[in-house]
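Can anyone check this?
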Amino acid sequence: MTLQKLADSTAAQFNQAYGRPPQWIAAAPGRVNVIGEHTDYNDGFVLPMAIERYTVVAAAPSEGGAPRARLRSTGNKGEPAVVDLTKPLQPFPKGAWANYPAGVLAGFLARGISPGGFDAMIHSTVPTGGGLSSSAALEVATATVIEAITGRTLDPVEKALLCQQAEHQYPGVPCGIMDQFISVMGRKDHLLLLDCRSRRTELVAMNDPSVALLITNTNVKHELGSGEYAKRRAQCETAAKILGVASLRDATPAALQQAKAGMDDVVFRRARHVIAEIERTPRAARLIGASDWSGAGQLMYASHVSLRDDYQVSCAELDAVVEIAQAIGERGGVYGCRMTGGGFGGCTVALVKTDAVAAISKKIGSDYKRKTGIQATIFVSRPAAGAAVLKPKP
């Protein structure tokens, strides 16, 4: 479904729920990280792109000027979540989906920017729980519709950071900055190289229509993920302390090797992944910018091996997809493939030839089902644009 059709569908659902058409519609994309995994909290580099899957928010002023925000989602039937704007905002109970938009609303109010009472309908095609950042898409789409309502446009960096803080404070998820940055700043036919220390961004052109990114959702999520994430962060901090650096961004492979004798083997391997991945990411950006698809693909495979063996955040299902992709090889149209996201399930991303997408998808789908008994969800995307107001037309 095109973004315009998605907006029209959301507007129709708004009309059905509230009995009038929306005045404003905004959208923000999900994302896939092409390379640079578990580097963000180590002050490293990441290379995400916005995908052609979106969260759309349609809104209109509340009837009679009621000072409250009513939030409905097509994915959550039942009564709307109501935010009373006459009182200091408080999070909904833990796990409530409305914490994401409510946290964004709180961020605007804290800056003295009030949209007044409004009704909203939220619809998303970003898969949830697959590591494609459905939460950031929801936050950024909410922020963008509030900008439209108030006529106040935030600086893109401030907007991304507001959304990140919303996720920290309301749902209570200590996310990095990558997801919100790419959802705000994505540009069609470009990846975004983000320096997580300086927050500097650089657009990397990927405008060759002969290549695309193929995303395979394994449709598994292993529960051990959340506790293991915290462990990895602590292990990275331990390694940095032993190496005498502020973060692993400042460490070198040579320094790590020298310190190996005084370091726990697991901590050593965690640091080895991060240091190598921080070096791989800008290199991959340069290769993609130069249309060296084979070179970029090899770095993607190297990233997966490092995540699997040194960082130990892959799983049998992710490994199965990468193995199938590697067996197809360049002759069959696959340049490279790796797990993407936090790990322990979720998605892989593959750099592929556009004209081979159908055959590759069929092969990955059938072989994965045979190996695991699970039906994967597979879709292709070109680099998409970031958040936008769709109504009124800019």
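Reply from J.R.: I decoded it. The chain has eleven helices and twelve strands.
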